[in-house]
Design goal:
16 strands, Glucose Permease (Domain IIA), 2 domains
Amino acid sequence: MEIIIIILSTALLSTTMFIFWVVRGGFNRKFLYTDNVILTLVSSLINVGVYETIDMPLWLMTPIICGFTVLVLFIGLFFYRFFRNPTRNIPGSKNDIVSPADGRIIYIKELESNQIPVTVKKKRIANISEITKTDILEQPCYLIGIAITLFDVHMNRAPIDGKVILVKHTPGTSIGLNTPESTLTNERNTTVFEREDGIKAGVVQIAARGVNRCIVMPKVGENIKRGGIFGKIRWGSQTDLIIPRNCEILVREGEQVHAGSTIIGKLLDQ
């Protein structure tokens, strides 16, 4: 009977932790059926082994030891998922625009010609005015937001083949007393890629508030392959993608995407 209580307590603690991160942290619900199950099984084996080896009262075992085991394994799982960099097979052809980040699609907006994109992160907004240094906005565009959680891969990949024509870093700032709460002050990097035929795509990396660690590896003038790694964000946050409107969007809001392996849209013949 004690063993059953330990297993049920472990399962309850693990499931509660994952539900919290699904609700509050935006985690994909699949983690409730994958990582949560694995964590529960491993934690239960450890907890039962500890209980069978060390003489301790059940009231001490279930809330404290079980909780500590679940927490330690969850932290280990977090570090594994956070720092991993899996190999990705890049699908489709050169006209298929791939996702620049792992995460969930939170919005797909249509921009008119010369309309400055406005990114939205947790109800805070920022004008991506630096992108006007290129002519990417001279035609109608899509602005696609991808929310990245702590369990998502944090490497960013190029959405198209091409040359880097813009890398603009906007440093994060501290929230002042006079700063409107709706103003986004997170660090961001804006990178624009251009193909040989003039097709352009922009990627905006937005760091988590207070972290300020966005990295872009290539310099202006360097070429990069579609799906190639060009940067990373050191903490769960957001990536926005700006692409021409003359393409068919193949994803929808709420869909989980993967950098380099999910096709966001297909460019149409002009």
